[in-house]
Amino acid sequence: MKRRTFLQLSGMTAAGTVLSGCQSGNEKLIPYLVPPDEGVTPGKADYYASSCRFCPAGCGILVRVSEGRAKKIEGNPAHPVNRGKLCAMGQAVLQELYHPDRVPQPLKRSGPRGSGAFTRISWEESLELLAGQLRALQREKATDRLALVTPQLNGTLVELTTRFMRVFGSPHHLSFDLLGPDWLRTATRRSFGQPGLPWYDVAETRYLLSFGADFVEHHLSPVQYGYAFGRMRQGRDTVRGHFTYVGGRMSLTGASADRWMPARPGSEGALALGMARLILAESLSDAGSLAVNGLQTEKLLRRLEAYDLPRVAEQTGLPQRIIAEVAREFATTRPALAMAGETVAFQSNGPDAVRAVQMLNLLVGNLNRPGGVYPDGGSRVGPENSFTELLSLVAAMRDGRFRVAMIHGDPVHAIPPATGFQEALARVPFIVSFSSLMDDTALQADLILPDHAALESWGDVIPLAGTRDRVIGLMQPVVTPLFDTRQFPDVLMAMADKLGGKTAAFPYQSYQEMLKGTMEKRVGRAARRDFETVWVELLRQGGLFETRQGQEKGYRRAPGSSLPNPAEPRFAGDEKRFPLHLLVYPSIAFYDGRGAPLPWLQQLPDPMTTVVWDSWVEINPRTAAEMGIGFGDLVEVTSPQGAMRLPAVIYPGIRPDMVAIPLGQGHRGMGRYARGRGSNPLVLLALITDGTETRPAWHATRVRLTRISEKGELVTAGHPQGSYRSELIEI
Ligand code: SF4
């Protein structure tokens, strides 16, 4: 049987399943009475390789399909990033396909904005509606009044969107992810003069020092780093790597460490430089590395004079003895590796703090060495400065400069309101959403052109920072689309066709064809001669995986780069009125909120607090006792930006001067499992930047707590003391 026939057959079967699943009354599982020909055997599964694009890590997946239904997702063992492993979000992608609240066909707004009143329309009608808006812009020579807002894209989709916007005549494509690692790209470029992201050889290191990089949960490529961490700890016969975690809140990553250093928020850069100074002063640095990078110990020591141990201890709130001990351990264990993460980066002094951590790697000579840090294989060319672009887009929207906004993703939920995005968007006369669920952005739209689910889509994914090798993961549809939806890139191509002229000049009929064309260009010249066979093989395997040959250009200190010198951290909110630091962290289940509609993820107990289905605020027992707050009490969290009420979780793994709230809940839409559940802590965040350039400092907001009542609603999957032993946590 041809694959196409199979997909048609399987899609019909799957569609039938879903539709009948919506009906009440008796339902029966009816086996095949007449066995289909061409090889579909009831009970026998087929496996299709594809890629997970739920987060930018781009892991490889294998989807089990039987009787035409996608039934299970596992990691692709051949994929160099995740080697057969998968995280909970990757497993739950199946529920995106079968979500009962998917937008089944194009919708046109029929009530006031935000009311959720829409009418179903056909694709022809909906595309004509959008084309009409765009033609009007063309007629009036106002094509730059179109904005396109998407998450950070990669692969062929970048080529397509860039081309569409360029040919249409608008430079306004905002590619923004709240959790995008632009900060790491910038820091790496400044430190080492190279674009792209670093790849850390965690598996081979003997001493790992993480400054707030929560690589087990979400940092860069969690499945890959989780796997590597397992190897570092248990995969070698005689070596068990040591792990020290720096950060004010004990995350799941922090809880896996041998030592926890709960440094004061914003002091991590000073801590890194204090360690650097001690390493240099005690001649523990790598002389060869200093020489290669054009640095001299004496000069460096003079520049780091301000970071003496007593001062750094005072700044960080950590004992001098511990700081010195960790610095010596780090410098005398080879190879040793330092990583910087989001909790450091999103402070007002974040960029220099990240570079201070990167300098530690240089000092101990572990650049471009096993167990050290290398340039990543795939992310060399990537988006940067998206936050700057976000703010200019918001300003232009607020001034009424845009007539049409096309939006993929859910920025209304995932962009902090302090940026003014939500208010500015309301000023755009015509909003198009490509969401497959009625999310918070789709609720504000005038037209919804629903995208396929990931398992129905074609695509390519260049994994983010997960490997040194050249990896291009492929996505292929494993079932025929269940509803009357269309892939976002195909809609752009159809729009180009409708608009005609230069915009129509796409050399491909469909996105699938375009993808195949790009892959043909990417494979070697010899393989291009018989590309049909190669293409089938690439799809079977899950993508193009090439081990990097020879020595790539490794890291060296960028000529003329100044030494990092993190300023005193600044915070939004007066210390007296708002005495506590707020940390908003991505939960392991929801990422930036995109996981919230999937019930498996809602049901996943938070690994540290065991809370399910909700939002909460974590408070240190000492702070809670001073304020008379008990476990589960309802408290109001107030920042200079906003306020919200949440149940309290008394959590010993957080500094007494901090509180933390997980990210991802608090949707107005997003289907029945996410809607109205929990709160979105982004509304609390103030807009504060690093002062020298426009970088967000999301962790630089202060808050205060007010106890409201004893009755909060909090469901835990077990007593939280079951997942950690408070007497073992010393703070
Ligand atoms: S880490 Fe990201 S890409 Fe990998 S399985 Fe999880 S959600 Fe998917």
Automatic annotation (TrEMBL):
It comes from the Bacteria. GO terms for molecular function: 4 iron, 4 sulfur cluster binding; metal ion binding; molybdopterin cofactor binding; oxidoreductase activity. Keywords: 4Fe-4S, Iron, Iron-sulfur, Metal-binding, Molybdenum, Oxidoreductase, Signal. InterPro entries: Asp_de-COase-like_dom_sf, MoPterin_dinucl-bd_dom, Mopterin_OxRdtase, Mopterin_OxRdtase_4Fe-4S_dom, Prok_Mopterin_Oxidored. Its EC number is 1.7.99.4. The keyword GTP-binding does not apply. Residues 45-101 form the 4Fe-4S Mo/W bis-MGD-type domain. The keyword Cell membrane does not apply. Pfam families: Molybdop_Fe4S4, Molybdopterin, Molydop_binding. Belongs to the prokaryotic molybdopterin-containing oxidoreductase family. This is Nitrate reductase. It comes from Geotalea uraniireducens (strain Rf4) (Geobacter uraniireducens).
